[in-house]
Amino acid sequence: MRTTSSVLGALALCAVLAGACGGGERRPVTAESAGGAASAGGAIRVNGAGATFPLPIYSKWFSEYNKLHPSVEINYQSIGSGGGIRQLLAATVFFGASDQPMTDEMLAKAPGAVLHFPTVLGAVVPVYNLEGVSAQLKFTGPLLADIFLGKITRWNDPAIAKTNPGFKGTGNITVVHRSDGSGTTFVWADYLGKVSPEWKQKVGVNSALDWPAGVGGKGNEGVAGLVKQTPGSIGYIELVYALQNKISYGAVLNRGGEFVTPDVTSVTAAASGAMESMPKDFRVSITDSPGQGAYPISSFTWILLFEDPKDKAQAKVMVDFLKWALGDGQALAGDLGYARLPADLARQELEQLNRIKLQ
To answer: Has residue 60 got a pLDDT over 90?
Structure first.
């Protein structure tokens, strides 16, 4: 399912969600096809596309920012991280959004230098549809890997019973995964690759995978819908989609030996240790974090901007928007199931914003 949000329709969208390569010389990037900076009535319109993971918070942010700046329209299409990166590199949108940082190879293919801006943190959670099961299930990383490898195919498997004493599962397991290029998939696979050598060898870590088992759904919305409609299924989605759709989700064993329920507190704990080794370009993985109380399948999500965009009017809008999002906008994250950025990281990003050429 492809979802489009604009600042003018963001509140309605949130209501729906609630219910349901070479180097070389760097040149300025043309983004004229992303929609002119000036539109009818003097409004400035900026188009972006990418991850479904941050759609709820971006919809809220664009709506609130529009209230502060009625002449600014920021339109966003949630087409998946892979699609957002492709459209950014093709300059068909002004900004991209991804739950997966761009690789060195991707950056080398870009027509200009691309900057990464973490916006919030979230959790990717194992969701399941088991009738009559009220207790939260517990999963280890290797157990999740074996389920998604297709090695564990029934809910009464001894490996599931071992981590869930008293659970009496029945029936076959239907694995549900993403069918599109997805940063959510990258985060999921990045974690499984760290805890399961077999997963890393046979499936690997990427935003699009050759899945050994299961059925695919497009976007977090598609996976959530398939899990809700399929008894005996298990999938993975961003926490906010599990909350909004009232889908059961499990606790996951972290490196400290704790079964941790994903929430704002446990995602924040996963981010706390990241600051010690944060690279200057903010491209970092925080899955399988060693922090106490840390939920192990946590991640930043990023907005991607060219350092030297041709359309300076749109660039000024996005720089001002990000200053607001990294400051006052962070207060809106918790209510939607996201964790706010560490204060020091937000400060570093504000400094990086100065690198974007506005003249």
So the answer is: yes
Strand 248-249 relative to strand 233-238, pairing: unpaired
**What does the pLDDT average to over 204-220?**
95
* Between 160 and 26, the higher pLDDT residue: 160
Q: Which runs of E-coded beta strand occur in the chain? A: 3-6, 44-50, 72-78, 95-98, 114-128, 138-139, 174-178, 215-217, 233-238, 248-249, 251-253, 259-260, 298-306
Statement to judge: residues 105 and 143 lie in one domain:
no
The pLDDT tens digits for 126-162 are: 999 999 998 999 999 999 999 999 999 999 999 999 9
Residue 286 lies in a domain: no
Residues 100 and 190 in one domain: no
Q: Is 72 helix (H, G, I), strand (E, B) or coil?
A: strand
Residue-number span of the structural domain to which 311 is assigned: 3-120+300-353
Q: Each residue of 259-280: pLDDT tens digit?
A: 999 999 999 999 887 787 899 9
Report d(CA 99, CA 102) in Å as an integer: 9
Number of DSSP helices (H) and strands (E) in the chain, helices first: 13, 13
The answer to whether residues 313 and 31 touch, using CB atoms and an 8 Å cutoff, is: no
Quote the radius of gyration of the chain (alpha carbons, Å).
Answer: 20
Sequence length of the chain is 359
Token code pair at residue 257: 């030996």
Residue 52: burial class (beta carbons within 10 Å; 0-12, 13-18, 19+): buried
CA distance 271 to 222: 28
Q: Are residues 273 and 135 located together in one domain of the fold?
A: yes
Question: Looking at the predicted structure, is the pLDDT value of residue 8 above 60?
Answer: no
- Give me the helix-helix angle, 312-326 and 55-68, nearest 10°: 110
**Which residues have CB under 8 Å from 51's CB, separation 6+?**
78, 80, 81, 84, 97, 98, 99, 182, 183, 184, 301
**Same-domain check for residues 268 and 313:** no
Residue 41: per-residue pLDDT: 55
Q: Are residues 147 and 215 in the same domain?
A: yes
Tokens representing residue 42 in the block:
């003097």
